[in-house]
Amino acid sequence: MNYNINNLNGEMLGRACAFAAKGDVRFYLNSVYIEKRPTGGVYIVATNGHYLCVYEDKEALPEEGFEEVILDVYQPNSKKLLPVFTQMKKTDSERVDLLNLDDSENQVHIVRTVDEETVTDRVYVQNGHYPDWQRVIDSNLNLNTPTGFNTRYLAKLKDFILKGENKKFPIVTLVAGSSEGSNIWQSEHGIVIIMPTRVIGEFKINELVKPETVELEEVAQ
Fold first, then answer.
1. What pLDDT sits at residue 216?
2. DSSP 8-state code for residue 50
3. d(CA 195, CA 15)
4. pTM of the entire structure?
5. In principle, which of 19, 80, 98, 126 could form an S-S bond with 70, CB 3.0–4.6 Å?
């Protein structure tokens, strides 16, 4: 099995781990999935079944024959990330190689350069089929005017939820807003208003939400 990818964005790989499940019985969700991108590079995907993260790494160089791989990101019998993923998360788009050095079907190696020395970390590969994540993307999306938000302000929504509300699944609903005025989120007990951040320069809609680029295959019954 060919799992080899050169020039992979390590920071994307590390940050995607935040969206993976922890200890889910659906073992493949406790992982990060890498899939060959049709026009070059790869997609880096993670989900816990409730939220989904997709990075486009257009500069990655999958070798001929590579199609996909599911990487186990946690330490054995633990919900703690493997140190290599934590380290990559803290870098600035560090480029790494994913190599099948032992020709094994159940493990690969992440090869990095740290302080001018080559460091190799072993990561196990999950067997099975990853969910068809592209089906989550609605090809009939009604795209609105691009509206930008400072992520620090969005993080305040978590602080807004009262302790007595749903602890496991706290919900805040966007009830009104625009790119030019107030954007209102509502919880069970109140509202938060966040003003948008103006989109500077040319804004291009991500290819993943363009209907003409999402090609889905029928799922076998």
1. 45
2. S
3. 27
4. 0.87
5. 126
